[in-house]
Amino acid sequence: MRNTYCIGDSNTWGYDSRSYLGSRYPREVRWTGILEASGIPVINLGQNGACIRDFGSFEQSSPLFQNSSGEDIAVILLGSNDLLSGRSAENAAWELDQLISSFLPHFAHTVLCSPVPLQEGEWVTSASMIQESELLPAFCSAIAERYHILCADSDHWGIDLLYDGVHFSEKGHRIFAEHMKQLLLPFHSV
Q1: Number of domains observed in the structure of the chain
Q2: Which residues pair with 5 in a beta bridge?
Q3: Using one digit for the tens of pLDDT, what is the confidence trace for 175-184?
Q4: Which residue, among 97, 81, 85, 106, has the nearest Cα to 13 in the 3D structure?
Q5: Radius of gyration of the chain (CA)
Q6: 161 - beta bridge partners?
Q7: Nearest to 38 by CA among 183, 170, 171, 177
Q8: For residues 111 and 127, what is the distance between their CA atoms, to the nearest angstrom?
């Protein structure tokens, strides 16, 4: 069976910023859970607060993939926390490039998702942070083109964010899942 490894931050993990205790949405609400329910085998490797460097390289992250086969798919949705911690879109893109180059030999397919641009909110109060987040999708497209991999341009999907300007709402998870399902189903029908 071909698995889809979803590597990401709190939006992949399913963080619900409306909760007082930092809990996550139920599985059926998270975009990864919605994909699972549609028949796509998903292994959710999302981590709250994860930056690109937290995954290092495939070799450093290999315990996460101990059951993977050369037929599996990697979906990478990272970069928002890098921008929130003050890094530029260019620096985040450089780290994404390094991460992807280490993952490519180990997966049949790799999908790079451009992070949804940040919006003004409780966690996002800097106009420059929003501007950097609007630049990152173009860098992601260039990386995907260089490596001949699929780029999921989620910056154009109208993802609904919560009051913090960072995290997907329940509606945002549904929209994200629907677009990802359309991208991933062809890999699972082979």
Answers
A1: 1
A2: 43, 74
A3: 999 999 999 9
A4: 81
A5: 15
A6: 168
A7: 177
A8: 29
Determine the 3-state secondary structure of 145 from DSSP.
helix
By three-state DSSP, how is residue 68 classified? Answer: coil
Quick check: helix, strand or coil at residue 5? strand
* Residue 132 buriedness (CB in 10 A; 0-12 / 13-18 / 19+): buried
Estimate to the nearest angstrom the gap between the alpha carbon of 127 and the chain centroid.
23
**Distance between CA atoms of residues 2 and 143, nearest Å:** 24
The structure's pTM equals 0.95
The two tokens of residue 68 are 């993977």
Q: Is the model's pLDDT at 159 over the cut of 80?
A: yes
Name the residue range of residue 50's domain.
4-188
The tokens of 47 are what? 């981590």
Residue 68 has pLDDT above 90, yes or no: no
> Could you tell me whether strands 73-77 and 109-113 are parallel, antiparallel, or unpaired per DSSP bridges?
parallel
CB-count burial class (<10 Å; 0-12, 13-18, 19+) for 1: exposed
The secondary structure element, H or E, covering residue 163 is: none
Q: How many CA atoms lie within 13 A of 20 on its CB side?
A: 0
Tokens linked to 2: 């071909």
CA 166 to chain centre: 13
